[in-house]
Write a structure and sequence with these properties.
The protein is built from 1 helix and no strands. Helix content is 82%, strand content 0%. It has one domain (1-43). The mean pLDDT is 90.
């Protein structure tokens, strides 16, 4: 009975280690994707503001 408890605890510990490493990797990946996406968005917005600033675009009704 003692070895069953030790084995179950060891299995739970290994499972938590694997799940923790996968979740940690996913959090880091999502962070870097968001950071790169934000930089691309800001670059595109700046380019549009600089390039489109010469013409006066108005909505006519």
């Amino acid at each position: 009975m003692f070895w069953k408890i030790v084995g179950a605890l060891l299995l739970a510990w290994v499972a938590f280690m694997v799940i923790g490493s996968v979740v940690g990797f996913l959090v880091k990946a999502v962070f870097w994707i968001a950071l790169i996406g934000g930089a691309v968005f800001l670059g595109t917005a700046a380019y549009g503001a600089i390039k489109g600033g010469k013409t006066n675009k108005q909505i006519r009704s």
